[in-house]
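[Automated response] Your request has been received and processed.

Submitted sequence:
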Amino acid sequence: MDVVSTDSAVDRTAPEADVRTVELRIEGMTCAACVGRVERKLRKLDGVDATVNLATERATVRHPAGVPVTTLVETVQKAGYGATEIRPAGAGDTGDEATSDDTALRRLRTRMAVALILFIPLADLSLAMSLVPSLRFPYWQWVVVALALPVVGWAAWPFHRTAVTNLRHGTTSMDTLVSLGVLSASAWSLGGMAFVDGRSTLTGWDAVLHPSGPLYLEVAAGVTTFVLAGRYFEARARRTAGRVMRSLAALGSDEVTLLRDGGEDRVPVGRLRVGDRFLVRPGERIAADGVVETGRAAVDTSAMTGESVPAEVGPGDPVTGGTIPSGGRLVVLAEQVGADTRLARMIAAVERAQTEKSATQRLVDRVSSVFVPVVLGLALLTVAGWLLGGAGWVGAVGPAIAVVIIACPCALGLATPTALMVATGRGAELGIFVKGHRALEATRAADTVVLDKTGTLTTGRMTVVDVAATGGDTAALLARAAAVESGSEHAIAAAIRAHAGPDVAAVEDFAALPGLGARGVVGGRTVVVGRPPDDTGPLADRVAEWEAAGHTVVAVHVDDALAGVIALADPVKESAPVAVAELVAMGLRPVLLTGDRPAAAHAVARACGIDDVVAGALPDDKVAHVRALQGTGRTVAMVGDGVNDAAALAAADLGIAVGSGTDVALEAADVVLVRDDLRVLPATVELARATMSTIRGNLWWAFGYNTAAIPVAMAGLLNPLLAGAAMALSSFLVVTNSLRLRRAASWADEALGGTRTPAGEEPTDYVEARP
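Generated structure:
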């Protein structure tokens, strides 16, 4: 896929026609320092520009034709990271990557579990043996070491491996600090245990202020356990980005039936070219964008437009790849194939939008890239200062270890994951699923909520809303229409059958009329259900009224005479007007953005109290409208449920998907409304704001704590034991601050029950939503 570079270096060194784009999968990155290192190494090559995405672990590289991909891969590998080229593939080829992600996550979870299981008894035993020497038993040292070594060695191995790799390339990362803290605390503790029998026994506060023995092993194991926990929850959130791409790719076709030399040839979709004619059978996905040559069918376009009513297509009508025809077979002339199809452009839009997020984490890692070497420098300065002061190695190494331990990023690693965990639990109580923090960063300033229509504000299911008969017998009219529609799978047919009830007459000589409706014989009379004629006689006013309201109108003919008309609509959810009113009360501007007809869109907008309406918007139009709002300085939250909403959900500052929607929309969004009740939408915005505020507070505390505690440790006022305790206290405070999110949007508990009493106002009655 084409990704536009933000750097003009490529254009200055090579003609645009000679520039190629390749995607590389990067392994071994842990922070923004790694991202910057990979980008800098690649950009040192002549004419090369690179953008690396930590969330998806991919690099999009634009390079001259004279620079082979193998050179790019070797450059990344020389920087200390793994790299493989990502080749274009069908939907069926995404399983290996998914399996790789799941395997890595399971390994990380296993390391975290082992570290936690061993850390708990190690902490108890280590403290007891150090503070109460009378409890020591023969060979107790070996028990402590046996508990500690798997944690500081095997469980912490990823940190050690990355630290060694960074050392070989003359760089540092947060893993360097973690590894150094764990190893130094472990080495100091083992040394103390080796000479413990020859030293005087200390008790009480003397043991605390001047510890010996295994106490630092508990600190080393604690650092490993806390950081592994943070890494695990971060990795679980990052895995979502790859699943979005796989869900979108699943909408494409793997194979297509080409029509050549009067015969049919089933080939991989990659061999389809512009100008080829291909066959689409009922229920198959259309393989590419094109124009119908022959055949008629009802095409389910909900994946691309959100329109709940299938579109009738015939010769000369355009069709879109990824949509599904029913009721007839089509012969299509391919006009857009491969990366040029609307579906492929949608996938590219989602990926580009995801790449643009995560400003807070980039800030954290940028600070960390400077923080780590500064801490190491301060530790060396501490050793030198105490040696010059005559303290000797024993007196100098202790404060230096305290500096490294107090700076270990446990609180920093827990700042975001713990807040997300609590927010997820609180959201589950309200019917909200918070998936990640990256797009929540701008929600504190959110001032615009863009809402899709079909399936979001409406139920997404066609229902009969009115019936009119020329003879006045609407029950007989419905019974005949339902009998004919019993042989059809169309969404309109299902709505008519559901409205008429289970008892319908038998139909004979049924025939589907592609593009026109259905015909059958009911009770000896020929009944046709389909489009209304231009002249509906005495029912013309009713038909005009229905069409003005955005309803779909179906005519019923009996023996070639108009017997009546039926109006169908996608009804507005009873909770939608309440939710919109709440959003307005919160100072947010609601906008209705839909691919449906203008009449239907404005009817829904009037029912919900929305003034701004954009109708007839295709997926890329929705993205363009979101971008336009952002261009005017607005912070946009997008609410949708369909595949057609996926790109807009990813492009918005906050993507919110309705739980009854498609898998792609659920994966692309940052927040999912599990409960099919839009009254939870205002609570979603409030919870998102509270979550981001908590994350920022946690990060400020984590950095501030390190900044204040390091000088104290350098002065020798904070030995490694107290440093470890302070580190644990810092993590405890971060977790406690995150737990406050359990009370976020507390008013929603009562509101979802039917009423809400805003502070300082009289109770407001709400309409109860049907389950």
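Summary generated for your ticket: Residues 278 and 743 are 57 Å apart (CA to CA). The longest strand covers residues 19-27.
If you did not submit this request, please reply to this message.
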